[in-house]
Amino acid sequence: MDDYRQQQIEALQVAHEYSAKLIRGIENVCEELCGNRLLDTDAYLDEVVKGINWIIEIINRTLDVVNEKEVLIEKEKVNEAVKELADALSKKEDALIAVALKGGVLEFVKQIEKVTAEY
To answer: Tens digits of per-residue pLDDT, 32-79?
Structure first.
């Protein structure tokens, strides 16, 4: 196995560990955005968004490995979910942000957790 592929596999292993934490973070921040807002909700949301960006970056760099045998992650669906989240974030409306997070973004991160379990 060449070095680059080995690095991709190692990145997927790290993404697997992180995705479980990110799922909990998304679920928790959604609860806060849906009426249980705390003083640090904005900071928490910022950290969750950074985590989502990080996991997307890992998947973008490893998509050829992930989708090697069959398409497990559809880049178009991910882009759609990210666009919906970006639109909601730009409007700064908690309910819209929560909907975007609970929808395609959470689905994507759960798919990452499932797919990366085999590495």
So the answer is: 999 999 999 999 999 999 999 999 999 999 999 999 999 999 999 999
Dihedral (C-alpha) 103, 29, 26, 58: value to the nearest 10 degrees?
110
User: Among all chains, which residue has been given the structure tokens 């979910």?
Assistant: 81
Mean pLDDT rounded to a whole number for the chain: 95
Contact status, residue 104 vs residue 77, Cβ threshold 8 Å: yes
- Return the percentage of the chain with pLDDT > 70, whole number: 99
Residue labelled with tokens 């590495």: 119
Question: SS3 for the chain, per residue?
Answer: CCHHHHHHHHHHHHHHHHHHHHHHHHHHHHHHHCCCCCCCHHHHHHHHHHHHHHHHHHHHHHHHHHCCCCCCCCHHHHHHHHHHHHHHHHHCCHHHHHHHHHHHHHHHHHHHHHHHCCC
